[in-house]
Design a protein that fits this description.
The protein has 188 residues and is mainly α. It is built from five helices and no strands.
Amino acid sequence: MPTITECIATANQAIRSVGENFLSSVTCSGISSADFASVFAVTEDSNIRDALSEYRTERSRIIQEITDLNNKISSLNSSIDNINAKIRECDNMNYSQQIKSANNEIDDLKKTINRTDDDKKKEEAQTGLSAAQKKKEQAEAASRTNARNRTEFANQKKSAEHALKEAEGKKKNLEKRLKQVEAILNLF
């Protein structure tokens, strides 16, 4: 595809050719012949130069915006990877085993308390029972906290994935726009 400058040169060449043909075919005595080249010449005016400048500015702006989006996309991918690691860590925490173990210990200590007549053994079992119940409560609290954390991480991941999708869509549109601007610039 010819550039605008090449089209102008071709048009001016055609105008000169028409002018030369006109001069050779029409002559009037006492009247100077029209100079087609000076009257009809096509030139690059300020509008063309301004348009070229605007498209170059637009190209630079789009390239900068794509660069910024690439950085944002990279940051979001890194954030999603970190959140996935936190979710896996939450999933790997198994508080049910601790709770089950504490329940077994509680059951055993209750049996000991019910079966023994020795006050010292009952007191020791009662102390152990209190400790086992506290251990169970702590494991249950940790389990609830872990579940809340996992839910929060999942929500953070969903938000980050949404932002990533938007950034990738915007980048795709900007890349399309950049191709259009570069195609126009190639005309100059």
